[in-house]
Design goal:
Number of helices: 16
Structural class: mainly alpha
Strand content: under 5%
Largest sheet: none
Radius of gyration: 21 Å
Distance between the termini: 40 Å
Order of helices and strands: HHHHHHHHHHHHHHHH
Number of domains: 1
Helix content: over 70%
Length: about 350
Protein backbone atom coordinates (compact mmCIF):
# COMPACT_ATOMS: atom_id res chain seq x y z
CA UNK A 1 0.00 0.00 0.00
CA UNK A 2 2.82 2.39 0.84
CA UNK A 3 4.44 1.65 -2.54
CA UNK A 4 1.22 2.48 -4.39
CA UNK A 5 0.79 5.70 -2.43
CA UNK A 6 4.35 6.74 -3.26
CA UNK A 7 3.82 5.87 -6.93
CA UNK A 8 0.61 7.94 -7.08
CA UNK A 9 2.30 10.89 -5.38
CA UNK A 10 5.32 10.82 -7.72
CA UNK A 11 3.15 10.49 -10.83
CA UNK A 12 0.90 13.37 -9.75
CA UNK A 13 3.94 15.53 -9.02
CA UNK A 14 5.34 14.94 -12.52
CA UNK A 15 1.93 15.69 -14.06
CA UNK A 16 1.73 18.97 -12.14
CA UNK A 17 5.26 19.98 -13.15
CA UNK A 18 4.77 19.23 -16.83
CA UNK A 19 1.18 20.29 -17.61
CA UNK A 20 1.54 24.07 -17.98
CA UNK A 21 4.64 23.78 -20.15
CA UNK A 22 3.04 21.07 -22.25
CA UNK A 23 -0.04 23.24 -22.84
CA UNK A 24 2.13 26.21 -23.82
CA UNK A 25 4.14 24.01 -26.16
CA UNK A 26 0.97 22.66 -27.75
CA UNK A 27 -0.26 26.22 -28.24
CA UNK A 28 2.94 27.35 -29.94
CA UNK A 29 2.97 24.20 -32.05
CA UNK A 30 -0.58 24.84 -33.19
CA UNK A 31 0.26 28.40 -34.18
CA UNK A 32 3.29 27.21 -36.15
CA UNK A 33 1.04 24.71 -37.92
CA UNK A 34 -1.49 27.46 -38.69
CA UNK A 35 0.95 30.05 -40.02
CA UNK A 36 3.59 28.08 -41.93
CA UNK A 37 2.25 26.74 -45.27
CA UNK A 38 3.07 23.05 -45.56
CA UNK A 39 3.86 23.26 -49.29
CA UNK A 40 6.77 25.61 -48.65
CA UNK A 41 8.69 22.80 -46.96
CA UNK A 42 9.14 20.72 -50.08
CA UNK A 43 10.35 23.69 -52.13
CA UNK A 44 12.84 24.78 -49.47
CA UNK A 45 14.41 21.35 -49.08
CA UNK A 46 15.11 20.49 -52.71
CA UNK A 47 18.64 20.09 -54.04
CA UNK A 48 21.76 18.47 -52.64
CA UNK A 49 24.55 19.48 -50.32
CA UNK A 50 24.89 20.95 -46.85
CA UNK A 51 22.44 23.83 -47.30
CA UNK A 52 19.26 21.74 -47.81
CA UNK A 53 20.39 19.51 -44.92
CA UNK A 54 20.84 22.53 -42.66
CA UNK A 55 17.47 23.98 -43.66
CA UNK A 56 15.75 20.64 -43.06
CA UNK A 57 17.30 20.39 -39.60
CA UNK A 58 16.39 23.93 -38.56
CA UNK A 59 12.88 23.78 -40.00
CA UNK A 60 12.15 20.37 -38.52
CA UNK A 61 13.39 21.12 -35.01
CA UNK A 62 10.42 23.20 -33.76
CA UNK A 63 7.73 21.03 -35.37
CA UNK A 64 5.71 18.98 -32.84
CA UNK A 65 5.87 15.59 -34.55
CA UNK A 66 6.88 12.29 -32.97
CA UNK A 67 8.80 9.46 -34.63
CA UNK A 68 5.57 8.10 -36.09
CA UNK A 69 3.92 11.40 -37.00
CA UNK A 70 7.00 12.59 -38.85
CA UNK A 71 6.92 9.66 -41.27
CA UNK A 72 4.10 10.84 -43.57
CA UNK A 73 5.51 14.36 -43.46
CA UNK A 74 8.98 13.13 -44.42
CA UNK A 75 7.64 10.91 -47.19
CA UNK A 76 5.63 13.85 -48.49
CA UNK A 77 8.74 16.03 -48.49
CA UNK A 78 10.74 13.39 -50.32
CA UNK A 79 8.07 12.89 -52.95
CA UNK A 80 7.63 16.63 -53.17
CA UNK A 81 11.24 17.21 -54.21
CA UNK A 82 13.37 17.07 -51.06
CA UNK A 83 16.72 15.27 -51.38
CA UNK A 84 17.39 12.04 -49.51
CA UNK A 85 19.92 13.64 -47.19
CA UNK A 86 17.56 16.53 -46.37
CA UNK A 87 14.76 14.06 -45.71
CA UNK A 88 16.95 12.08 -43.31
CA UNK A 89 17.92 15.25 -41.47
CA UNK A 90 14.26 16.18 -41.18
CA UNK A 91 13.49 12.68 -39.86
CA UNK A 92 15.99 13.19 -37.03
CA UNK A 93 15.56 16.84 -36.08
CA UNK A 94 11.77 16.82 -36.05
CA UNK A 95 11.01 14.03 -33.54
CA UNK A 96 14.07 14.69 -31.34
CA UNK A 97 12.77 18.08 -30.26
CA UNK A 98 9.95 20.57 -30.74
CA UNK A 99 8.44 23.64 -29.13
CA UNK A 100 6.35 21.44 -26.86
CA UNK A 101 9.24 19.25 -25.70
CA UNK A 102 11.50 22.30 -25.20
CA UNK A 103 8.93 23.81 -22.86
CA UNK A 104 8.56 20.57 -20.90
CA UNK A 105 12.36 20.15 -20.87
CA UNK A 106 12.70 23.55 -19.22
CA UNK A 107 10.22 22.53 -16.53
CA UNK A 108 11.53 19.01 -15.84
CA UNK A 109 15.21 19.02 -16.89
CA UNK A 110 16.28 22.57 -16.10
CA UNK A 111 17.42 25.47 -18.33
CA UNK A 112 20.83 24.01 -19.26
CA UNK A 113 19.37 20.79 -20.65
CA UNK A 114 16.48 22.71 -22.26
CA UNK A 115 19.00 24.74 -24.28
CA UNK A 116 21.45 21.95 -25.04
CA UNK A 117 18.81 19.44 -26.17
CA UNK A 118 17.45 21.27 -29.26
CA UNK A 119 20.97 22.37 -30.25
CA UNK A 120 22.10 18.74 -30.04
CA UNK A 121 19.11 17.66 -32.15
CA UNK A 122 19.99 20.12 -34.91
CA UNK A 123 23.69 19.16 -34.83
CA UNK A 124 22.80 15.47 -34.95
CA UNK A 125 20.48 16.01 -37.90
CA UNK A 126 23.06 18.03 -39.86
CA UNK A 127 25.77 15.47 -39.05
CA UNK A 128 23.58 12.63 -40.30
CA UNK A 129 22.71 14.57 -43.44
CA UNK A 130 26.39 15.12 -44.20
CA UNK A 131 27.09 11.40 -43.73
CA UNK A 132 24.19 10.60 -46.05
CA UNK A 133 25.58 13.02 -48.65
CA UNK A 134 28.90 11.19 -48.61
CA UNK A 135 27.36 7.70 -48.58
CA UNK A 136 24.83 8.42 -51.32
CA UNK A 137 27.19 10.35 -53.57
CA UNK A 138 27.88 7.24 -55.66
CA UNK A 139 24.22 6.74 -56.48
CA UNK A 140 23.27 7.69 -60.03
CA UNK A 141 19.55 8.03 -59.48
CA UNK A 142 17.58 10.96 -60.80
CA UNK A 143 16.33 13.40 -58.18
CA UNK A 144 12.67 13.18 -57.30
CA UNK A 145 10.71 15.82 -59.16
CA UNK A 146 8.03 17.70 -57.24
CA UNK A 147 4.55 16.64 -58.18
CA UNK A 148 1.86 19.27 -57.72
CA UNK A 149 -1.77 18.42 -58.20
CA UNK A 150 -4.74 20.77 -58.45
CA UNK A 151 -6.76 21.00 -55.24
CA UNK A 152 -3.95 19.36 -53.31
CA UNK A 153 -1.92 20.81 -50.47
CA UNK A 154 0.59 22.03 -53.02
CA UNK A 155 -1.87 23.82 -55.32
CA UNK A 156 -1.94 24.11 -59.09
CA UNK A 157 1.23 25.81 -60.21
CA UNK A 158 0.05 26.06 -63.78
CA UNK A 159 -2.40 28.80 -62.79
CA UNK A 160 -0.74 30.44 -59.83
CA UNK A 161 2.58 30.01 -58.04
CA UNK A 162 2.78 28.44 -54.61
CA UNK A 163 4.04 31.69 -53.11
CA UNK A 164 1.20 33.68 -54.69
CA UNK A 165 -1.35 31.13 -53.57
CA UNK A 166 -0.05 31.28 -50.00
CA UNK A 167 -0.24 35.09 -50.13
CA UNK A 168 -3.82 34.98 -51.40
CA UNK A 169 -4.79 32.58 -48.61
CA UNK A 170 -3.19 34.81 -45.99
CA UNK A 171 -5.20 37.80 -47.29
CA UNK A 172 -8.42 35.81 -47.52
CA UNK A 173 -8.19 34.31 -44.05
CA UNK A 174 -8.11 36.63 -41.10
CA UNK A 175 -5.39 36.43 -38.48
CA UNK A 176 -8.00 35.59 -35.89
CA UNK A 177 -9.36 32.69 -37.92
CA UNK A 178 -5.92 31.17 -38.46
CA UNK A 179 -5.05 31.59 -34.81
CA UNK A 180 -8.26 29.89 -33.69
CA UNK A 181 -7.65 27.06 -36.16
CA UNK A 182 -4.16 26.59 -34.73
CA UNK A 183 -5.45 26.46 -31.16
CA UNK A 184 -8.16 23.97 -32.10
CA UNK A 185 -5.62 21.83 -33.95
CA UNK A 186 -3.33 21.79 -30.90
CA UNK A 187 -6.16 20.83 -28.53
CA UNK A 188 -7.54 18.09 -30.78
CA UNK A 189 -5.47 16.54 -33.57
CA UNK A 190 -2.03 17.27 -32.14
CA UNK A 191 -2.93 16.24 -28.60
CA UNK A 192 -4.63 13.08 -29.90
CA UNK A 193 -1.43 12.03 -31.65
CA UNK A 194 0.77 12.23 -28.56
CA UNK A 195 -1.48 11.86 -25.51
CA UNK A 196 -1.01 8.10 -25.18
CA UNK A 197 2.77 8.47 -25.12
CA UNK A 198 2.58 11.38 -22.71
CA UNK A 199 0.59 9.19 -20.34
CA UNK A 200 3.05 6.33 -20.72
CA UNK A 201 5.99 8.68 -20.17
CA UNK A 202 4.52 10.22 -17.01
CA UNK A 203 3.54 6.84 -15.56
CA UNK A 204 6.95 5.33 -16.34
CA UNK A 205 8.65 8.34 -14.77
CA UNK A 206 6.55 7.92 -11.65
CA UNK A 207 7.47 4.23 -11.52
CA UNK A 208 11.18 4.97 -11.88
CA UNK A 209 11.06 7.55 -9.10
CA UNK A 210 9.19 5.07 -6.90
CA UNK A 211 11.22 1.92 -7.52
CA UNK A 212 14.73 3.29 -8.12
CA UNK A 213 16.61 4.77 -5.16
CA UNK A 214 18.80 7.77 -6.12
CA UNK A 215 22.04 5.78 -6.19
CA UNK A 216 20.72 2.71 -8.01
CA UNK A 217 21.92 3.79 -11.46
CA UNK A 218 24.88 5.90 -10.35
CA UNK A 219 27.33 3.01 -10.70
CA UNK A 220 26.62 2.57 -14.43
CA UNK A 221 24.91 5.84 -15.24
CA UNK A 222 27.71 7.48 -17.20
CA UNK A 223 30.37 6.81 -19.77
CA UNK A 224 30.46 5.17 -23.17
CA UNK A 225 29.04 1.71 -22.18
CA UNK A 226 25.98 3.27 -20.55
CA UNK A 227 25.39 5.44 -23.62
CA UNK A 228 25.60 2.44 -25.94
CA UNK A 229 23.01 0.74 -23.75
CA UNK A 230 20.74 3.79 -24.03
CA UNK A 231 21.05 3.67 -27.82
CA UNK A 232 20.10 -0.01 -27.88
CA UNK A 233 17.13 0.70 -25.64
CA UNK A 234 16.06 3.89 -27.39
CA UNK A 235 16.22 2.98 -31.09
CA UNK A 236 13.46 0.34 -31.12
CA UNK A 237 11.25 2.34 -28.72
CA UNK A 238 8.11 4.12 -29.89
CA UNK A 239 8.00 7.36 -27.93
CA UNK A 240 7.80 11.08 -28.66
CA UNK A 241 10.14 13.80 -27.45
CA UNK A 242 7.61 15.26 -25.03
CA UNK A 243 6.71 11.91 -23.48
CA UNK A 244 10.38 10.95 -23.13
CA UNK A 245 11.14 14.09 -21.12
CA UNK A 246 9.62 13.01 -17.79
CA UNK A 247 11.38 9.66 -18.18
CA UNK A 248 14.64 11.53 -18.70
CA UNK A 249 13.98 13.62 -15.59
CA UNK A 250 13.36 10.48 -13.57
CA UNK A 251 16.60 8.92 -14.85
CA UNK A 252 18.51 12.06 -13.87
CA UNK A 253 17.06 11.93 -10.38
CA UNK A 254 17.90 8.22 -10.19
CA UNK A 255 21.59 8.95 -10.72
CA UNK A 256 22.15 8.69 -14.48
CA UNK A 257 24.50 11.26 -16.01
CA UNK A 258 22.98 14.06 -18.14
CA UNK A 259 24.94 12.91 -21.19
CA UNK A 260 23.57 9.39 -20.93
CA UNK A 261 20.06 10.73 -20.48
CA UNK A 262 20.57 12.93 -23.55
CA UNK A 263 21.43 9.85 -25.62
CA UNK A 264 18.10 8.32 -24.61
CA UNK A 265 16.26 11.58 -25.34
CA UNK A 266 17.77 11.64 -28.82
CA UNK A 267 17.72 7.98 -29.84
CA UNK A 268 14.30 7.19 -28.38
CA UNK A 269 12.19 9.81 -30.16
CA UNK A 270 14.28 9.93 -33.35
CA UNK A 271 13.44 6.47 -34.60
CA UNK A 272 11.65 3.18 -34.13
CA UNK A 273 11.19 -0.02 -36.07
CA UNK A 274 8.56 1.57 -38.30
CA UNK A 275 10.82 4.49 -39.15
CA UNK A 276 13.64 2.15 -40.13
CA UNK A 277 11.32 0.20 -42.41
CA UNK A 278 10.05 3.35 -44.13
CA UNK A 279 13.58 4.71 -44.64
CA UNK A 280 14.68 1.47 -46.28
CA UNK A 281 11.60 1.34 -48.51
CA UNK A 282 11.60 4.97 -49.62
CA UNK A 283 15.34 5.68 -49.83
CA UNK A 284 17.18 2.35 -49.88
CA UNK A 285 19.62 0.40 -47.73
CA UNK A 286 22.48 2.90 -48.09
CA UNK A 287 20.28 5.67 -46.74
CA UNK A 288 19.29 3.43 -43.83
CA UNK A 289 22.95 2.77 -42.98
CA UNK A 290 23.69 6.50 -43.12
CA UNK A 291 20.65 7.24 -40.98
CA UNK A 292 21.59 4.77 -38.23
CA UNK A 293 25.31 5.47 -38.23
CA UNK A 294 24.78 9.22 -38.10
CA UNK A 295 22.18 9.00 -35.34
CA UNK A 296 24.13 6.60 -33.14
CA UNK A 297 27.53 8.25 -33.46
CA UNK A 298 26.25 11.82 -33.05
CA UNK A 299 24.06 10.92 -30.05
CA UNK A 300 26.93 9.30 -28.16
CA UNK A 301 29.42 12.02 -29.11
CA UNK A 302 27.05 14.80 -28.04
CA UNK A 303 26.32 12.91 -24.82
CA UNK A 304 30.01 12.69 -23.99
CA UNK A 305 30.45 16.39 -24.81
CA UNK A 306 27.53 17.25 -22.53
CA UNK A 307 29.01 15.36 -19.57
CA UNK A 308 32.41 16.94 -20.16
CA UNK A 309 30.86 20.43 -20.46
CA UNK A 310 28.90 20.04 -17.24
CA UNK A 311 32.02 18.89 -15.39
CA UNK A 312 34.15 21.65 -16.89
CA UNK A 313 31.63 24.41 -16.16
CA UNK A 314 30.66 22.91 -12.80
CA UNK A 315 26.95 23.06 -13.68
CA UNK A 316 24.72 21.78 -10.86
CA UNK A 317 22.05 19.91 -12.81
CA UNK A 318 20.36 18.66 -9.64
CA UNK A 319 19.95 22.21 -8.37
CA UNK A 320 18.48 23.26 -11.72
CA UNK A 321 16.04 20.36 -11.55
CA UNK A 322 14.84 21.49 -8.15
CA UNK A 323 14.66 25.20 -8.98
CA UNK A 324 12.94 24.73 -12.33
CA UNK A 325 10.12 22.82 -10.66
CA UNK A 326 9.20 25.78 -8.42
CA UNK A 327 8.94 28.56 -11.00
CA UNK A 328 5.15 28.28 -11.36
CA UNK A 329 2.60 29.00 -8.60
CA UNK A 330 0.84 25.94 -7.26
CA UNK A 331 -2.60 27.17 -8.31
CA UNK A 332 -1.43 27.65 -11.90
CA UNK A 333 0.15 24.18 -11.97
CA UNK A 334 -3.08 22.68 -10.64
CA UNK A 335 -5.24 24.55 -13.15
CA UNK A 336 -3.02 23.53 -16.05
CA UNK A 337 -3.04 19.88 -14.92
CA UNK A 338 -6.85 19.90 -14.68
CA UNK A 339 -7.18 21.49 -18.12
CA UNK A 340 -4.75 19.01 -19.67
CA UNK A 341 -6.59 16.07 -18.11
CA UNK A 342 -9.98 17.36 -19.35
CA UNK A 343 -8.67 17.92 -22.88
CA UNK A 344 -7.06 14.49 -22.85
CA UNK A 345 -10.24 12.78 -21.66
CA UNK A 346 -12.20 14.53 -24.39
CA UNK A 347 -9.73 13.46 -27.07
CA UNK A 348 -9.63 9.85 -25.86
CA UNK A 349 -13.44 9.71 -25.66
CA UNK A 350 -13.65 10.86 -29.29
CA UNK A 351 -11.14 8.20 -30.28
CA UNK A 352 -13.20 5.50 -28.57
CA UNK A 353 -16.40 6.70 -30.27
CA UNK A 354 -14.68 6.79 -33.66
CA UNK A 355 -13.28 3.28 -33.15
CA UNK A 356 -16.71 1.91 -32.23
CA UNK A 357 -18.43 3.57 -35.16
CA UNK A 358 -15.91 2.10 -37.61
CA UNK A 359 -16.54 -1.45 -36.39
Amino acid sequence: MELLTSFAHNTLTILMDASLWLLLGLLFAGLIRAWIPEDLMGRWLGGEGIWPVTKASILGAPLPLCSCGVLPAAVGLRRGGASKEATLSFLIATPETGVDSIAVSYALLGPFMAVYRPIAAIISAIFTGVIATLVLRSEKTEPVKPVYQPNSAFGAINTISVTQQAAVEVVADSWLKRTVEGVVYAATTLLAGIIHWIIIGIVMAGAVLTLAPPDLLSSWGSGFPAMVMMVLIGIPMYICATASTPIGAALLLAGMSPGTVLVFLMAGPATNIGTLAVVKKEMGMKALYAYLSGLVSSSILLGLILDWTIDFMAVDIEAQLQSSQHLVPHWLESGAAILLVLLSLRVMAQQVIAARSSN
